[in-house]
TrEMBL record:
Homodimer. This is Pur operon repressor. It comes from Sporomusa sphaeroides DSM 2875. Keywords: DNA-binding, Transcription, Transcription regulation. SUPFAM superfamilies: PRTase-like (SSF53271), Winged helix' DNA-binding domain (SSF46785). Residues 5-74 form the Bacterial purine repressor N-terminal domain. It holds the Pfam family PuR_N. Gene3D superfamilies: 3.40.50.2020, Winged helix-like DNA-binding domain superfamily/Winged helix DNA-binding domain. InterPro entries: PRTase-like, PRTase_dom, Pur/Pyrimidine_PRTase, PuR_N, PurR_Bsub, WH-like_DNA-bd_sf, WH_DNA-bd_sf.
């Protein structure tokens, strides 16, 4: 096999690490892949670490010991995070996004990969201290955001269904009351999806009164899991007291005027 030059190794290493954030790769894996000694690989990793740090693109961590290795932890600089949230707020404030009932059309943004990748990394940075084992969301619009949060954490994503699926085996179902419309709905989770004692982070795209989020919390607890936190992309300012507490929102929707087509939505800044 032809020897791989340093520049080529660094490029390939960077691609592999960045494609799977938070995943711990052994030095042996890279040594065998490129056909170089671990000491040489360590030098390449040092180069990547310094470059990532210089441009504020993330951190490359090395873990010592037999079970150790190297992993890439993405970071979003405060000014970049605030710029993204300002962009999302401005786009969500566009007059033609207002939907009757005080809602905003968000699907195009939720299904735009580069926006949700960054949003997922912001959630990961702000909620990393919760140390979840799984990311939990409910179908369907919140799935892209939750998936990118799961990617940033390198964790599995579990999707709660609005109704059960025969193809997923036996499920646990609960009835919950939506906080805004006060309607009774059903959500279900396959019994094998979450092990008892698992630490769960709930992610959703929108929260008004918190009924859906509370339903997910109750469902997770029903199967013996522990909900460590809740993150939502957009939460309404009113009602002030939601059905859940201690949630993180990246944007706060203060008011929608359907007559004047003016939307007051503000980002929760990293420096705020």
């Amino acid at each position: 096999m032809e020897k791989v030059r340093k520049m080529e190794r660094v490029a390939a290493l960077t691609k592999i690490l960045a494609d799977r954030p938070q995943h711990l790769f052994s030095l042996s894996y890279f040594s065998e892949l490129f056909g170089f000694a671990k000491s040489t690989i360590c030098e390449d990793i040092t180069t990547i670490k310094e470059t990532m740090g210089h441009f504020g693109l993330g951190t490359v961590e090395t873990v010592a010991g037999a079970a150790g290795g190297v992993r890439f932890v993405p970071t979003v600089p405060a000014d970049e995070a605030d710029k993204l949230l300002h962009e999302l707020a401005c786009r969500l404030a566009e007059p033609d996004r207002i939907i009757p009932g005080g809602f905003l059309y968000m699907s195009d943004l939720l299904f735009t990969p580069h926006l949700m990748v960054k949003a997922g990394e912001i959630f990961m940075e702000r909620l990393a201290h919760l140390s979840p084992d799984y990311i939990l969301t409910v179908e369907t619009k919140g799935i892209p955001l939750a998936f990118m949060v799961a990617r940033a954490f390198d964790l599995p994503l579990i999707t709660v269904r609005r109704g059960s699926r025969v193809t997923e085996g036996s499920s646990v179902s609960i009835n919950y009351v939506t906080g805004s419309s006060k309607r009774i709905q059903t959500m279900s989770l396959p019994k094998r999806a979450l092990p008892a004692g698992a630490r769960v982070l709930v992610i959703d795209d929108f929260m008004k009164a918190g009924g859906t989020a509370k339903g997910m919390v109750d469902l997770a607890q029903e199967v013996g899991a522990e909900v460590t936190g809740i993150g939502v992309l957009v939460a309404t300012a009113e009602p002030e007291h939601k059905l859940v507490e201690d949630y993180l929102a990246l944007l706060i929707l203060h008011d929608i005027d359907e007559h004047t087509k003016v939307t007051d939505i503000r980002p929760v800044l990293t420096t705020g």
